[in-house]
Amino acid sequence: MGKEKKFLPLGSICVVEGNNKKVMIIARALAVKVRDKTYYFDYGASLYPEGMIGDSLIYFNQDNIAEIIHEGYKDEENKEMEMNITKWIDQCPFPKGDPLNLK
Q1: Using one digit for the tens of pLDDT, what is the confidence trace for 20-53?
Q2: b/e per residue 42-62 (b: at least 16 CB within 10 A)
Q3: Which InterPro entries match (predicted)?
Q4: Residue 5 maps to a domain
Q5: What's the pTM?
Q6: In this structure, are residues 29 and 88 in contact, taking their beta carbons and an 8 Å threshold?
Q7: Strands of 65-70's sheet in order across
Q8: How many domains does the chain contain in total?
């Protein structure tokens, strides 16, 4: 297995590069089909404080985070989930998506 990667917990609030709007992380390690190709992203988020609008998520990666406003709740279950996410990413057949080049 590769280097262990730390993920922000669910409920974390952050600002993504190039934006000034806060988002709340509601999903981690997502496989997403964009047009005819599948990519994975570290995070899926909704706008904060609005929440989900329709069924659209905002996809981004750890290196797209400009500022962490608040870290969500962490416990042993979260630590175990992080390990499972890391294992999935190590075996993931999809390339990592670049949210800045999805248009």
Answers
A1: 999 999 999 999 998 899 999 999 999 999 999 8
A2: bbbbbebeeeeeeeebbbbbe
A3: DUF4176 (IPR025233)
A4: no
A5: 0.89
A6: yes
A7: 58-60, 37-47, 22-34, 13-16, 65-70
A8: 1
